[in-house]
């Protein structure tokens, strides 16, 4: 992808994010934060490529660290968000 | 099996759409669980197709990493107490920053031939990733009380920060013309890591919600920068969504404290024009009450508003409060909860704590909704909240908290404040609410007091 296309994505996604997030009610702000932690674990995608490539030990080690950290975010983030959201009930 | 880049990119697009739908689900409690599932599905799609990427030649390291990270993630998510949620989010922010840092570093040492944009993006991912990583750990340590929560600093700290930031930018500029220098790369990483520590050290406990929200935003921006490094659309889109989310929450927190972000990050609380003497505010005006008296008041009440603060959660009194509310509701009393945006230790924290105690979410009212109703409220019960009810914020122009939006509990017919003593809150100010004619002080432990009131109500 060329830089301008990437920048376009970046800027439009920020606007989309602002529109979306302002509609999240304060009641759900904590799950929103843990959920966005989980989503930002998308770095896992880059981590997988680094960890699975054959570019020498240093890259593999960095890739491994990245996979571990991003997986914690993804698994931990989604699970804890789910745990919290399940508590929000209406009587 | 390998698939073409086009198919991978289309799968990333699907993942991004699922993330957006997931966040959209979070706009209502009813659809929130499904939203979270959708986002999870998006993540699964993105990860599975990535495993088919042509650059991936072996899977051992990947499997090991996913196992280790997965186990830690499951343990953290299952074990964490709801009161400790801010610490967990601080940790996860840090891990997110660390992951983006590592991805950018791995890409750097993979030694492709990145263009200027690629190097600048790498520098940005390393800088923001490392700041987020170390900064989040300091925030975690403060929240977990491993280190003192008070602002910490030393003379020349701001200058040191400026030098570190400037040095980082110079290092990135150097890498643009000499992309192959590992020494400069590690220099940048160390400077950024130090900067993260020094930026969060001077921020006090009361301002932690702002810092967590801001670091949340940084972790998104770092992921986005890593996306620019790899030319990966999924990272760019998702990172900017998270970046925007953290930024909005940061803004909401700052607004709720009537402070600018610069003021939170670099300043101390504004000094009051006059020093307010606690004795002058309180002398002879404090009326102390008992659980029985409060129960009698509640028996004739039609509408009661409970105003919880973090003190309530510290005393583990959520369940006791719900029981009091249940008893009142059984007597036909309308009960609602007034939640100030900075109640608790992170955005929305108090709501989660009350939801855990099975309080129905439609009874949790935000400040703008509940404030106009205090005039029709018979009894407001303030539990572990202090500064967010201080009328000085509304009335006293000389006060350091003047202009901060507060819950107008003093407009209720009677205010019952449950508190151990007359000690000041985070802002260090006396609270004239305690001395008002319609205020009764119930001194004692929050949980004990609530249990006593409930018992007295049931007897009566």
Automatic annotation (TrEMBL), chain A:
Residues 7-90 form the NAD(P) transhydrogenase alpha subunit C-terminal domain. It is an enzyme of class 7 (translocase). Keywords: Cell inner membrane, Cell membrane, Membrane, NAD, NADP, Translocase, Transmembrane, Transmembrane helix. Its main location: membrane. Pfam families: PNTB_4TM. Its EC number is 7.1.1.1. Signal peptide: none annotated. It is found in: Cell inner membrane. It catalyses: NAD(+) + NADPH + H(+)(in) = NADH + NADP(+) + H(+)(out). It is a multi-pass membrane protein. The chain crosses the membrane at residues 6-22, 34-51, 57-81. Coiled coil: none annotated. The transhydrogenation between NADH and NADP is coupled to respiration and ATP hydrolysis and functions as a proton pump across the membrane. This is proton-translocating NAD(P)(+) transhydrogenase. It comes from Alcanivorax xiamenensis.
């Amino acid at each position: 992808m060329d830089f301008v296309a990437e920048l376009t994505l970046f800027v439009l996604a920020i606007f989309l994010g602002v529109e979306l997030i302002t509609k999240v009610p304060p009641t759900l702000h904590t799950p929103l934060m843990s959920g966005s932690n989980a989503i930002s674990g998308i770095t896992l995608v880059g981590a997988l490529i680094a960890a699975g490539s054959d570019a020498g030990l240093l890259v593999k080690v960095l890739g491994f660290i990245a996979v571990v950290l991003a997986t914690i975010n993804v698994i931990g983030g989604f699970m804890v968000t789910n745990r919290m959201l399940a508590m929000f009930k209406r009587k | 099996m390998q698939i073409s880049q086009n198919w991978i990119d289309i799968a990333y697009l699907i993942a991004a759409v699922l993330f957006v739908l997931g966040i959209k689900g979070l706009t209502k409690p009813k659809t929130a669980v499904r939203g979270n599932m959708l986002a999870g599905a998006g993540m699964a799609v993105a990860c599975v197709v990535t495993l088919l990427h042509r650059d991936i030649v072996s899977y051992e390291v990947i499997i090991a990493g996913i196992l280790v990270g997965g186990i830690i993630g499951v343990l953290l998510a299952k074990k964490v107490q709801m009161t400790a949620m801010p610490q967990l989010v601080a940790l996860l922010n840090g891990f997110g920053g660390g992951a983006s840092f590592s991805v950018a570093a791995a890409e750097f040492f993979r030694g492709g031939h990145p263009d200027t944009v690629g190097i600048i993006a790498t520098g940005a991912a390393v800088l923001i990733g490392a700041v987020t990583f170390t900064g989040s750990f300091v925030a975690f340590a403060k929240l977990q009380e491993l280190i003192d929560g008070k602002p910490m600093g030393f003379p020349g700290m701001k200058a040191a920060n400026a030098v570190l930031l400037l040095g980082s930018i110079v290092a990135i500029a150097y890498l643009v013309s000499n992309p192959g220098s590992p020494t400069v790369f590690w220099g940048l990483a160390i400077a950024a890591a130090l900067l993260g520590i020094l930026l969060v050290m001077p921020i006090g406990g009361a301002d932690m919600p702002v810092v967590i929200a801001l670091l949340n935003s940084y972790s998104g921006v770092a992921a986005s920068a890593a996306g620019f490094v790899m030319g990966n659309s999924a990272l760019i889109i998702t990172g900017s969504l998270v970046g925007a989310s953290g930024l909005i929450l940061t803004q909401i927190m700052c607004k709720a404290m009537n402070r600018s972000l610069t003021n939170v990050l670099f300043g101390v609380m504004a000094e009051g024009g006059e020093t307010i003497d606690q004795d002058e505010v309180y002398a002879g005006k404090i009326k102390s009450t008992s659980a029985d008296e409060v129960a009698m008041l509640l028996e004739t009440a039609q509408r009661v508003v409970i105003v919880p603060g973090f003190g309530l959660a510290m005393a583990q009194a959520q369940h006791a409060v719900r029981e009091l509310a249940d008893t009142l509701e059984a007597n036909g009393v309308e009960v609602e909860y007034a939640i100030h945006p900075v109640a608790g230790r992170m955005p929305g924290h108090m709501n989660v704590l009350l939801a855990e105690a099975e309080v129905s979410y439609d009874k949790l009212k935000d400040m703008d909704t509940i404030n106009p109703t205090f005039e029709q409220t018979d009894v407001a019960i303030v539990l572990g909240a202090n500064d967010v009810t201080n009328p000085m914020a509304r009335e006293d122009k000389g006060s350091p908290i003047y202009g901060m939006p507060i819950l107008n509990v003093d407009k209720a017919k009677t205010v019952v404040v449950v508190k151990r003593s007359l000690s000041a809150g985070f802002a260090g100010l006396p609270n004239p609410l305690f001395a008002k004619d319609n205020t009764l002080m119930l001194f004692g432990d929050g949980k004990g007091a609530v249990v006593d009131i409930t018992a007295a109500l049931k007897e009566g």
